Description:
two-stranded antiparallel sheet
Amino acid sequence: MSDLKTRFLEVYSVLKSDLLNDPAFEFTDDSRQWVERMLDYNVPGGKLNRGLSVIDSYKLLKEGKELSDDEIVLSSALGWCIEWLQAYFLVLDDIMDGSHTRRGQPCWFRIPKVGMIAINDGILLRNHIPRILKKHFRQKPYYVDLLDLFNEVEFQTACGQMIDLITTLVGEKDLSKYSLPIHRRIVQYKTAYYSFYLPVACALLMAGEDLEKHTNVKDILIEMGTYFQVQDDYLDCFGAPEVIGKIGTDIEDFKCSWLVVKALELSNEEQKKCLHENYGKEDPACVAKIKELYKDLKLQDVFAEYESKSYEKLIKFIEAHPNQSVQAVLKSFLGKIYKRQK
């Protein structure tokens, strides 16, 4: 494990301890144990990419200078706020979707004795973020900007989740609702803001930058987040389960995936009929027909072309940015996701 990741995980323990001893609430042993178990189960379990990228980005903005202990703690605390936000979304998402597993273990609400208490746990996770920000950033000149940023991004993500839920209403499986602009809107709001823009925006604020002056950085990161989700959609169908760590179910789940949107665009009437008849069905034979159709439509080639065009476009935008250290941050993000297999 890298040194930075070790430090990052140490900061998690400190933040958790602060929250479990928050003077605003008188904890009992039972309630403290519940919150600790809930945090350990839901917050640090993922790849931690979003959180770690706050530290990476801040370091690049400081042009590679060694970070002081204080800077490591503060950038880690912001990284953890993003991981807390992610945990809050996922706990509630899993309930809405009726999911069974997350990160290779049962969803939190599926754990015996948790059930619908998980909804309140989600609310608690959300409320921990301003507690962390208050404790560590209250005296900073950018404190209000941080609060504003987290509120803004949470609102955008919740709206993205809403479009996703109402577009894929259960019982109303209507493929004609799916199109590239709809796919793009869902992805932009539901994923790109909090996964791509938020970590860099946190680092920029810490570095004393004004976010209003960096709208082009936001645009590039949203574009990158869209490209990332298209990769995700592609890997759900064509990635190897042992590499991506899960068995894709976008076809069965009637997801508004880039692949189905592209397939609708490229299909003749006969193929469209096949899509409408088989998409969103649990039956493995139906799933196989959809995958076969994707192969007939050469969606693997269509994706490869999309990937290289997106990369060229992003590099062009990034290299047009006047600030070298901001360029370095954006290139580092792109480098991590370009041609990824998982």
